Amino acid sequence: MKNNSIKTLVRENILQLQPYISFRDHNEFNAPVMLDANESPFGECNRYPDSTQKRLKSKLAGLKKVSPSQIAIGNGSDELIDLIVKIFCEPKKDAILMMNPSFAMYGFYAAINENKVSKLNLDENFEIVKDNFLKAAEDPSLKIFFLCSPNNPTGNSVDDIEFYLQNFNGIVVVDEAYIEFSGKKSSLELLGQYSNLIVLQTFSKAWGFAGARVGMAYASEEIITLINTVKAPYNVNVLSQELILKTLEEENKLQENVTHILEERTWLKLQFEGITCIKKVFSTDANFFLIRMENVDNVYAKMLGEEILTSRRDPAIPGCIRINVGNRAENEKLINLLKEI
Ligand SMILES: *Cc1c(COP(=O)(O)O)cnc(C)c1O
């Protein structure tokens, strides 16, 4: 970012907001008598969750080597994308920039907030053309660049993230939903250098907790305070907070899951080689493959007929289907069917 301070990027009404702070945020959470929140004294989940997610943040801070004040927790990273758009983009006035193709949710939340969505078309290898980026970035209405690395649905990582941080006059959100599969360095280590950086991570993919809806934003304390100000106080429920805290105690679990998925990814890639309806398997840093098929209509219909769900990307990405890495039984079923076609 060249000269903007973060404050000049924030919507005026958001700057004026006072965060909702419950009495409990300042006090001992488990008082012996809690008659302040109109809860029931009975039941197994009768208390509101900790709105500051203190224990979770403290655990994550240790794991990621950041301060708890640099972490915001959302109801999935989807919620954080929504909040980030709301904080920085004035409805009907400001715009976001996203790669094309990339994760549809950036455009979805921008549209809800009535913000224009500028799309930066990737080249035939799904890489960003830097000159095109520089040209697009000149638009003064742009407030946020959503940079997805590894990118969904293409699977490749974005190189030279610092170039975009330096040459975008706004917030750069690096969405690292698949970083655990990539072997690449996280942009978390750039947090100290770039005040306009937000890194998103999630428990939904490598960690295996898509159903719990827990995602993180890592950024400067200034940005995190803004996110905490606009979020719904009780956005992450008690059960999910407990579940994630428990899984964070099992230190080797993540690595075991990732290793297993990567082994299956290698196995699948090998199997794809002998299959005639496959024209091209794009290289991937994630837990899925983007695959160009011969006669994609037919292949997709046959898979659906056998109740194998995949994500059709055609016609936006011609001939392509995104298929994620499953367990061995699922992968074998897929391969056996593809061999038949
Ligand atoms: C799956 C995914 C997410 C995760 O969203 P959650 O709301 O945390 O489940 C975020 N970004 C991208 C690019 C994804 O593919």
Automatic annotation (TrEMBL):
Organism: Chryseobacterium metallicongregator
Domain of life, source organism: Bacteria
Pfam families, per the entry: Aminotran_1_2
Presence of keyword Oxidoreductase: no
Cited SUPFAM superfamilies: PLP-dependent transferases
Entry-annotated residues carrying N6-(pyridoxal phosphate)lysine: 205
Keyword presence, Transport: no
Designated name of the protein: Histidinol-phosphate aminotransferase
